[in-house]
Specification:
With 196 residues, the protein is mainly alpha-helical. The protein has seven helices and two strands; from the N terminus they run H-H-E-E-H-H-H-H-H. It has a single domain, classed as Arp2/3 complex 21 kDa subunit ARPC3, CATH 1.10.1760. Helix 2 crosses helix 3 and helix 3 runs antiparallel to helix 4. It is globular and about 50 Å long.
């Protein structure tokens, strides 16, 4: 079953519809990143909700490609004078991969969303994110970790609730099915394509 999950997710990359939707989500993420709140001990951004949705729609392989491309593009567009560090690109890639692993072709429940968000926060934000700061600044791991815990607890609750509510609404409205649909006879706006 896992092999099928990875194969199906990889095959999503071959569809023009998928690439179009990913480009749209990438643009939305880059715009949302400009409205994020970043303080020394606290950060709030809504772009992880889009990453969760991409993982749910297209799975771990396509999600990983999306996460990597988004981080690289985001560095060049929204760079605030920071130096490029490949660890952050790896973290973004891993995060969307994990969302895809947990949410792709699975029943959407608040518990499932909470658990995968918690796992991503522990692995990607608290461990890897703090490790990259230690490597870049030379300060100790425990210098950064306590302040990052509070911010991530807030993000865990906020992102879980907001993503679950948005995903439920989009599922009921049929948007998720339209974005995920593999039918070649319909375009993104629902106009029938003529077959030759």
């Amino acid at each position: 079953m896992k092999t099928s999950l990875f194969r199906d997710s990889y095959n999503e990359l071959k569809k023009l519809r998928t690439l179009t939707v990913l480009a749209m989500f990438m643009a939305m993420s880059l715009i949302l990143a400009r409205f994020s709140i970043r303080l020394p001990e606290f950060s709030l951004t809504w772009s992880p909700i889009i990453k969760m949705y991409v993982g749910m729609l297209f799975g771990p392989i396509t999600g990983a490609v999306y996460g990597c491309a988004l981080d690289l593009l985001g560095f060049f567009i929204n760079n605030r004078g920071d130096a490029f560090f490949p660890g952050y690109t790896f973290t973004e890639t891993l995060g969307v991969f994990l969302y895809g692993l947990a949410l792709y072709k699975k029943r959407l429940t608040i518990t499932r969303v909470f658990v995968i968000k918690l796992i991503v926060i522990i692995i990607c934000n608290l461990f890897l994110g703090t490790l990259w700061l230690v490597i870049m600044t030379g300060k100790g791991f425990m210098f950064y970790l306590p302040a990052r815990i509070g911010s991530n607890i807030f993000n865990l609750i906020a992102h879980t609730l907001v993503f679950f509510l948005i995903a439920q609404c989009l599922n009921k409205a049929g948007v998720t099915r339209l974005l995920r649909s593999s039918e070649d006879t319909r375009s993104l706006i629902g106009i029938k394509n003529k077959k030759n």
